[in-house]
Amino acid sequence: MFIESAKLFRKIHEQQQQQSSKTRSQSELATISSSYRKLLSDFLLPPTNEKSFTEVFEKHGTVTLLKQTHYRQLLALWDLCDILYFTDGDKRMTGLKLLQWLNKNDKGIHRFDLQGIMNNSRGPIDHPDFWPCIYKLIFRREFKTLIDFIKIAKNKQFTSKEASQLLDHLLRVIIDVPSIPRTTTATTLKNDQQDTIDKYISDWSKWREKVYKTAESLQKGGDRSILMHQKSLLNALAILHGQQKTILNQADHPTEAIICFILNNHPFATPHEIRTIITNELDISLKHQQDDNERFYAFGMMIKGNIAEALDCFRPDDWWTLVHLVDLFGLSTENLACNYISTIGIQLFDQEDVQQQLYSMEFRTFLILTYVRLLGQQSSLWKYGLDYIKTCGDLGKKALMNYIQCIPTNNSIGVQELLELCIEKDYVKEVVEIYKHEADKGIKDSYSKAIRYLYDIGNYSYLEDICELGIYQFASTGNNANLNHC
Predict the structure, then answer these.
(1) What is the Cα–Cα distance from 430 to 422, expressed in whole angstroms?
(2) Domain-embedded: residue 416
(3) What pLDDT, on the 0 to 100 scale, is given for residue 450?
(4) Is a pLDDT exceeding 50 seen at residue 391?
(5) What's the structural domain count of the chain?
(6) Model's pTM, two decimal places?
(7) Separation between Cα atoms, residue 410 and residue 383, nearest integer Å
């Protein structure tokens, strides 16, 4: 994965240098993102012979299952960014795509024991999980399942007449809920798509009025024996109506609340509109749930548009994902840079530097240079760090001097690529440093090559220094292998 992604990264940035625009079209972004995502998926979740959770557990144990969970969260992050920022197509379908993404990555509905609820000795409606299960099915728009669930509960032996009548109110509302249309089919004409949306908005408005009137009638009174359940039913109706206070109170995490609020109030909002809606309409504090649901806190921040804060939650876990996501953000035509951490104080490479020198850098540069340091620690991947480091401007040049010290002794091809890069960019100091580094390792003709290079470009100050070093080494060792053919 690391080699293939470095090659893809190099290709992308070589193309950028050839183009006048610094951004890519949405279709190009989608293609690039898909390529990176496949590399990530193939690396993190290779195919296995195990067909079930039990088989994976028995063969690989708890550690593997935990890793799989973590890997799926990284893929979920990438898929979320795809929906919000990279995917081409009709942006009005973002709300539905977010719901599909949520249902795929959060199986919260599976925590409910449906059989246990239905077989409760006092009746399903008196089971403590009955209404939370109702809320969850509404949040996930599993209306067919909800209809079946209510019908079975109504007909259970211990369901009272009053409870059955109460459930009828919810059933009548759910049966009539209009389905959000999909408008992404290539054969659908633009005018037809708009007609479909207009019809849905009309039907949806009438249905919302029905929800409101049902709730209004229930608030006027009711049987005292089911008063508690009546309040729970009002909560269910409030969620359906898109009332933010109830949604925030009943959602398991901010991401679930945001997606429900959007679909029940602005079902055709684009990603940009969603960010504005969350800021202006949804009074949500994502901070208070960070400890309990850190990943879904991060996902909520991503939907809200706080990109850097969302990515920071993943920073200790996977530098590859962060580096390539942030690089894609930089290629986007949307103005996303304002959402990055503008500067960050960081020490480059040498953690034992007594001066503890700090550099201010862009978030992207910080991520890339950290990732490059990790690549530099493996001789087989060392040379691929060059593809990344040369996109970091002046700070990349500063880091390059430290990176040279990581040159593996057995990577002559990587050294040659580094030399070519430095010569191409007129990094004279770095070229000399590479030759010195090679000479210290006993590589033949290192000083001779440095002298010829400096002579050819007319840099006589460095030429004098390198000659002195070569003569000093010869005097110290008696070995003139690095000064042949001068």
Answers:
(1) 7
(2) no
(3) 67
(4) yes
(5) 1
(6) 0.79
(7) 11
Please answer whether residues 284 and 256 qualify as being in contact, where contact means their C-beta atoms are separated by less than 8 angstroms. no
Residue 14's CB is within 10 A of a number of other CB atoms, namely 10
Q: Which domain holds residue 76?
A: 53-306
Q: Give a yes or no: residue 364 inside a domain.
A: no
- Phi, psi for 345 (deg, rounded to 5): -85, 120
- Signed CA dihedral, 260, 294, 304, 324: sign only: negative
Would you say 124 and 150 are in contact if contact means Cβ atoms under 8 Å apart? Answer: no
Joined tokens for residue 6: 């470095």
Structure-block tokens of residue 486: 């001068």
Which helix (H) or strand (E) segment holds residue 460: the answer is helix 460-477
Residue 200 lies in a domain: yes
Calpha distance 71→79 (Å, rounded) = 12
Query: What digits encode the pLDDT tens for the residues 424-440?
Result: 766 767 777 776 666 66
Which residues, listed in sequence order, are joined to residue 359 by a DSSP beta bridge?
A: 346
Instruction: Please give the Cα distance from 408 to 479 (Å, whole number).
Output: 23
Orientation of helix 227-241 relative to helix 254-265, angle to 10°: 70
Q: Token pair of 428, please?
A: 């004279």
The one-letter amino acid at 297: Y
Tens digits of per-residue pLDDT, 118-161? 888 888 899 999 999 999 999 999 999 999 999 999 888 777 88
Give backbone dihedrals phi and psi of 346, rounded to 5 degrees, phi first.
-150, 145
- Token couple for 313: 């939650």
CA angle 440, 443, 448 (to 5 degrees): 90
| Helix, strand, coil percentages in the chain from 3-state DSSP, rounded to 5 | 70, 0, 30
Which residues touch 406 (CB under 8 Å, ≥6 apart)?
376, 377, 382
66-78 as b/e, with b when 16 or more CB fall inside 10 Å?
A: eebeebebbbbbb
Q: Is 191 inside a domain boundary?
A: yes
Rounded CA separation 475/465 (Å): 15
